[in-house]
Amino acid sequence: MIEKLPSLSRRAALGATATTLSGAGLMAMLGSSAPALALAKQDPAQDVALLNAAIGLEHEGISAYQIGAESGLLAQPVLALAVTFQGHHKQHRDELIAAVRRLGGEPVAAKSMADYAADLNAGSIKDQAGVLALALKLERGAANAYLGLIPSLGANEFHLLAARMAGDEAFHAAILGNALGEAVPEKGLMFG
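Predicted structure:
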């Protein structure tokens, strides 16, 4: 059994900007360096730590959508979309939990809704656009995190899972950006 590693919150994993996190960033958060990345390729405990950081991302995303749904600020069909995206994040969380357990690790637990609300500064959100802007920031950060996670994982069996999750997060970001009236970026390679 792999020993329980310290958990990272989605907020901590996303760092100060909450928009650009790579697998290398996750490694740095875990106190790893370039030589440690090579060791991670052979160390299931490092994969457990990285996957647990991703579970933390999903816990926060699930909570953010719950906070938005309960806020009374979302009108239909945006509320239904938020609930759908929350369902995607629950599926991501469950897949990641299964991966951590396959590696013999203990999945990181979610924090309380009050903790997530404080971490996300939810009290400052006053309208639907504010809820969507927060969700967009988190989705973009998660897409980048999953893309960076792929080369950092030693177990190749989880690369496709991380890539699929990055695709979901990028899809969510595109829909949310459109809902906020953001222009389609003129240049490609927006993530990673």
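Summary: Residues 1-40 have pLDDT under 50 and may be disordered.
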